[in-house]
Every structure is written in structure tokens, then in C-alpha cells.
């Protein structure tokens, strides 16, 4: 792809966020291009979740600019619900509706938000279940699934809205070790399909393999960012060096 065709999907410029006297994000600037996979690493409490949550306005920055898909989030005229429909989010906890079937969980948002009629939503849901390797689970209750299966359903549910950006906040941190690989495989396939993704994870092997760019957060700042080979094999920042020595 030539430079001229590169499209910025997420533009963040000099964003700050405090909770009381706790200055959580400090002058964060970051652009993410279409089809890019950005992995965010860093110690607990460094502001990674707060950063992700700001991108769909679950948190509001104190100042600075955030533009998603060309929409300035601070602009009063921006319909934040429309922006959110294009951003899928997957968390550590699955937030599925436990009393519903797998298929109902995946169909719910597109039908409720009027994006698809039931027939189309069901067709889409069944396709997505194939994609995440759980086609045979369509009609079972979510209660009966393992954590890893629930997380793959949560990914399918987010994809049902046909988002063009996917955010993942430690999607495998709550899973038993033997479940982690299946979820990472789904994410890897999604990355290969060209989805724009921002992923917070402690899975360094996955980051090395899948990330176009790795961003290291520490104390509310982006201390270093670059391609995986550089960040993991030749880190310049001392705090990054220290962090990597603990996690790798
Ligand atoms: P990370 O995801 O990197 O672990 P977070 O973004 O969750 O970091 O948190 C960054 C800091 O902000 C932490 O000190 C945390 O306690 C604080 N924080 C996060 N959310 C809130 C909130 N809703 N209210 C007050 N403090 C918060
Ligand atoms: Mg977090």
C-alpha cells in the first residue's frame, strides 16, 4: 500500500486524564492506521485500560484530541453511539448474557440496534461461530461454556456489529492456561483478515508474532514504541528494559 492510501483510523493527540490527584494519562499522542495491529504492554496501573476506554468514550479525557474514523469525540455534533457501533470491545470478563443461548448473545446487538433483521443477524451469527470454531455451540446456554469458549463468543458478539476497529483489554488474563491458545488463534486470524486492532496483553509471544507495532505504557506515558523486533530485542527505554526482564 502506498503512503497516500494509508488511512488513520484512530488519532490521539496530547491527551491527559486524571482521577482526582492521580494523573493517569500524560500527554498521550498516538495514531493508528487502518489494518494496523497495535499491542499495548506495560505494568498494572500504567493507564492502558483507561486509554482504551477513552477511545469509545467510556472515559472522557480532561483535554487533548481523539478522532476515531474521522469523528472528533469532543465535538458536540458527533453521535457517539454511531462511533461506538464501529468499535468492538472485548474485556477480560466476558459480559455475556448468561441466561441466553450463544446464538441469542451474538444476534442481540445487531437486532436491537436495528442494524440487521433477525434472519440476517442469525446468518451472520452462524458464520461468526464458524470463524471462532464454535459452530456446534449455537443453541446451548452460555452458562455451559468454558472460559475460553465464552471469550471466543464474546469476540464473535463484538464482530456481529461489523466493526472496523476492535479493542481488546487483556482478553486472556482470566483464562486457564490451556484456553489461552484458542482465543489468541482467533485474534491472530482476525489480524490476518486485516482488522484494525488495539490489544492490551501480557502475552509477549503473541505480541511478537502478531503486532505491527508495540507500545509500552508506564506511569501514564508512552515510554517507547516500535516494531516488535525493536521493542523486544533492542529496547532503549530503561523502564521498558526492566519491565521486559520481569515478564520474559
Ligand atoms: P492499567 O490498565 O494499565 O492497569 P488503568 O488504566 O486501569 O491501568 O489504571 C490507571 C490508574 O487509574 C490506576 O492508578 C487506577 O487505580 C486508576 N483508575 C482507573 N480507573 C479509575 C476510576 N474509574 N476511578 C479512579 N481511578 C481509576
Ligand atoms: Mg487494565
TrEMBL record:
Q: Which InterPro entries match?
A: AAA+_ATPase, ABC_ATPase_HisP-typ, ABC_transporter-like_ATP-bd, ABC_transporter-like_CS, MetN_ABC_transporter-like, P-loop_NTPase
Q: Which SMART domains match?
A: AAA
What are the alphabetically sorted keywords of the record? ATP-binding, Hydrolase, Nucleotide-binding, Transport
Top-tier EC class: hydrolase
> What region holds the ABC transporter domain?
10-244
GO-annotated molecular function? ABC-type amino acid transporter activity; ATP binding; ATP hydrolysis activity
A matching Pfam family: ABC_tran
Reported EC number(s) for this entry are: 3.6.3.-
**Which PANTHER family does the entry mention?**
AMINO ACID IMPORT ATP-BINDING PROTEIN (PTHR43166), ARGININE TRANSPORT ATP-BINDING PROTEIN ARTM (PTHR43166:SF37)
Give the protein's recorded name. Glutamine transport ATP-binding protein GlnQ
Q: Which organism is it from?
A: Leuconostoc suionicum
Taxonomy, top ranks, is: Bacteria, Bacillati, Bacillota, Bacilli, Lactobacillales
Amino acid at each position: 500500500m502506498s503512503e497516500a492510501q494509508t488511512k488513520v483510523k484512530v488519532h490521539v493527540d496530547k491527551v491527559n486524564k486524571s482521577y482526582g490527584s492521580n494523573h493517569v494519562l500524560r500527554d498521550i499522542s498516538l495514531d493508528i492506521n487502518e489494518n494496523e495491529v497495535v499491542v499495548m504492554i506495560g505494568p498494572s496501573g500504567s493507564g492502558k485500560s483507561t486509554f482504551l476506554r477513552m477511545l469509545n468514550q467510556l472515559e472522557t479525557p480532561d483535554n487533548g484530541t481523539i478522532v476515531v474514523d474521522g469523528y472528533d469525540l469532543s465535538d458536540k455534533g458527533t453521535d457517539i453511539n454511531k462511533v461506538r457501533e464501529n468499535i468492538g470491545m472485548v474485556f477480560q470478563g466476558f459480559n455475556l448474557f448468561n441466561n441466553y443461548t450463544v446464538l441469542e448473545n451474538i444476534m442481540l446487538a445487531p437486532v436491537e440496534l436495528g442494524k440487521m433483521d433477525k434472519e440476517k443477524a442469525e446468518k451472520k451469527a452462524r458464520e461468526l461461530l464458524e470463524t471462532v470454531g464454535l459452530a456446534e455451540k449455537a443453541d446451548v446456554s452460555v452458562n455451559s461454556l468454558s472460559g475460553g469458549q465464552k471469550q471466543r463468543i464474546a469476540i464473535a458478539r463484538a464482530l456481529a456489529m461489523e466493526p472496523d476497529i476492535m479493542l481488546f483489554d487483556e482478553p486472556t488474563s482470566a483464562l486457564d492456561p490451556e484456553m489461552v491458545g484458542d482465543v489468541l488463534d482467533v485474534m491472530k486470524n482476525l489480524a490476518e483478515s486485516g482488522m484494525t486492532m488495539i490489544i492490551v496483553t501480557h502475552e509477549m509471544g503473541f505480541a511478537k508474532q502478531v503486532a505491527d507495532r508495540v507500545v509500552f505504557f508506564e506511569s501514564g506515558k508512552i515510554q517507547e514504541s516500535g516494531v516488535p523486533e525493536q521493542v523486544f530485542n533492542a529496547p532503549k527505554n530503561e523502564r521498558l528494559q526492566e519491565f521486559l526482564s520481569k515478564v520474559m
